Here is the input.
Amino acid sequence: MASTILPAIRGSRLLGILDGSVAAPPVILRVEKADKMVEESKNPAHAALLAQDQHLLSYLLSTMTKELLVHVSSHEHAAQLSQEKKGDLSASTYYSKMKGIADEMAASGKKIDDDDLIGHIRNGLESEYNSFVRARFANCVSAMDIQFMTAGTILI
Here is the structure.
């Protein structure tokens, strides 16, 4: 299959994006004017590279089998679960977002069990939410976890 994909990618001049040899230009251009003021504007080169990147992604996804697409999708969702942080979201919004990602994974055939989801949620919460974690997931965690949580430490 690589023998049919690579010529198309090379012909579209997208190989540098795929192999990382083309660096992404900055999103914002900063230009210092004569009066020492700095003017910021969107970089058209970044927009062009983003369009090429999306073209490449579309091409790669269109050449994948259904089974491979499910696998790729589940890895994307798993990475999203691992990287997601509560940040400025309310606790309930954050929980709903994480549960939604887990539901998307289940729909693609890669169900994540409740213990793993709880672990991902815990990783994304600041320590001030320990009481929320204890209250929300009290019936989902093991007796050992509850023992440590009541002592003030949440196991991850």
Q: What stands out?
A: The chain has a mean pLDDT of 76. The first helix runs from residue 2 to 11. The beta strands are 28-32, 38-42. Helices lie at 2-11, 15-19, 44-62, 66-83, 91-107, 114-124, 130-136, 143-150.
